[in-house]
Structure to design on (515 residues):
């Protein structure tokens, strides 16, 4: 039986910034936000002035000021890439409670551009987790910095416990590229679009440059520019719009730790908990899902998360990709946009997950966002999972198409 | 030295204001055995700041004999032969001077 919040709100639109990827002309995170919000407003026909709640990572007030709006619900949850799945959860609760009817979830992050305008790595990440936190004092000293340096430890432990190999995980990278070659907006769509774009083989993944053993660079997501926004509305507002609603049937969030130092089991994440709650609210289970969108910061993240979501037994997450089920034409499509590995990843990948879920379940994937086509599947249900930090925080959504 | 809760007797790492297990603030510092085992590890080929010159080097999470876990850089291992490092191997601590005021614990694999 579904929980009381199930389908209390729907995603009624999803849009991106005008240009995304490895932008030649550096762009600001704020501009990426604003372009996406403008496109979202045009797509849904909902004026920006009608937005009642704003959800983003760490600077929602600045965003509202720039838009010239004063919302009555402001949320700046910033706990990594899964924050946007949590924003949807929070917006669902706020709409169910009757506080607001229309919520904006927005993301803009110039992960690539920031490198050429003085920054490093990702764009605005929000607050917390800085070098002065006690746990970071105990890890920074040992030269752990970027995400790959941490996640590699999880892959080694998974290989030790389950007998998996880097080749097993390489299939995830290969399949992500298969999807990306069907999506013109994917950064790795083709060789013409990016020198390293186009199809790749498992062997190429294995033989690419080592970043953090056992992970080569093709086991790691890119850091590009991305802006995106989704609009969430009450059933009454959703019924008044011309865009199709995609119902939020279930939502859950959880965390295991902040710093990987406190990760108890390196082969498991809190996605098991956030998924349990999301499935419970939806009154559905993994067997009811027809596709999945999983944060693939690294190949190991996708494999482990598939296990946590109940889509595969423990230690066998990679088989969904290796056996071809997750690939184009397979029986259980995963990361149909090309994922963080081959579509786009700006530092926090939660928003592209939401946008692709909306595209697929509203049947608009091939109509495209901002004019470009993608690849439409026939799925009517989708489990969406974001991971944040160092396999730390998770948000899970169960989304279903309108009947 | 490791923090240990006087109320529940459990050792925790990193140091806290409250015991993360029972939330007591009755915490003491004890001298650890300096023994542990490798929980998992990785080889860092891409590093920033002062560690950039050291790459590649082997990072590892160590299960302390007293309980809980510590991150380190493993000493006495070959970063070019990561397959030879075994999870579960015994390690002992050694301290290296980081600057005039501080030493850092590093861990070395011991034959057993």
């Amino acid at each position: 039986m579904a929980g009381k919040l199930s389908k209390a709100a729907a995603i009624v639109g999803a849009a991106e910034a005008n240009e995304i990827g490895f932008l030649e002309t550096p762009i600001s995170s704020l501009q990426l936000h604003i372009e996406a919000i403008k496109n979202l407003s045009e797509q849904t026909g909902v004026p920006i002035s009608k937005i009642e709640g704003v959800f983003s990572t760490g600077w929602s007030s600045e965003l509202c000021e720039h838009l010239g709006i004063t919302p009555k619900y402001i949320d700046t949850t910033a706990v990594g890439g899964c924050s946007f799945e949590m924003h949807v959860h929070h917006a669902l609760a706020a709409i169910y409670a009757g506080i607001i009817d229309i919520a904006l979830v927005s993301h803009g992050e110039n992960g690539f551009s920031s490198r050429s305008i003085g920054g490093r790595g990702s764009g605005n990440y929000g607050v917390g987790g800085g070098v002065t936190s006690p746990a970071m004092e105990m890890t920074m000293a040992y030269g752990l910095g970027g995400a790959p340096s941490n996640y590699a430890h999880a892959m080694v432990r998974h290989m030790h416990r389950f007998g998996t190999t880097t080749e097993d995980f390489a299939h995830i990278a290969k399949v992500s590229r298969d999807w990306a070659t069907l999506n013109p907006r994917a950064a790795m769509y083709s060789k013409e679009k990016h020198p390293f774009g186009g199809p790749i083989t498992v062997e190429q993944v294995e033989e690419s440059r080592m970043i953090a053993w056992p992970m080569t660079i093709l086991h790691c997501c890119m850091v590009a520019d991305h802006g995106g926004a989704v609009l969430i509305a009450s059933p009454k507002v959703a019924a008044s719009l011309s865009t199709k609603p995609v119902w939020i049937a279930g939502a859950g969030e959880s965390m295991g730790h902040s710093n990987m130092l406190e990760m108890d089991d390196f082969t498991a994440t809190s996605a098991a908990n956030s998924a349990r709650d999301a499935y419970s609210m939806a009154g559905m289970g993994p067997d009811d899902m027809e596709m999945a969108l999983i944060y693939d910061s690294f190949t190991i993240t996708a494999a482990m998360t598939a296990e946590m979501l109940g889509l595969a037994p423990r230690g066998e997450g990679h088989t969904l990709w290796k056996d071809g089920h997750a690939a184009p034409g397979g029986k259980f499509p995963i990361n149909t946009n090309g994922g963080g590995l081959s579509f786009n990843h700006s530092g926090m990948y939660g928003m592209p997950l939401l946008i692709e879920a909306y595209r697929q379940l509203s049947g608009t994937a091939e109509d495209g966002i901002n004019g470009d086509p993608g690849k439409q599947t026939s799925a009517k249900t989708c489990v969406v999972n974001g991971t944040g930090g160092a396999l730390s925080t998770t948000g899970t959504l169960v989304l279903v198409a309108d009947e | 030295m490791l923090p240990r809760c006087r109320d529940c007797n459990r050792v925790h790492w990193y140091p806290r204001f409250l015991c993360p297990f029972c939330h007591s603030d009755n915490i003491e510092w004890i001298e650890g055995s300096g023994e542990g085992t490798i929980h998992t590890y990785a080889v860092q080929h891409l590093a920033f700041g002062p560690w950039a010159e050291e790459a590649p080097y082997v990072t590892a999470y160590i299960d302390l004999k007293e309980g809980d876990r510590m991150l380190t850089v493993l000493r006495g291992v070959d970063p070019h032969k990561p397959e030879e490092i075994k999870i579960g191997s015994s390690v002992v601590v050694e301290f290296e001077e980081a600057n005039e005021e501080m030493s850092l614990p590093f861990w070395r694999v011991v034959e057993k």
Summary: The CA atoms of residues 65 and 110 of chain B lie 14 Å apart.
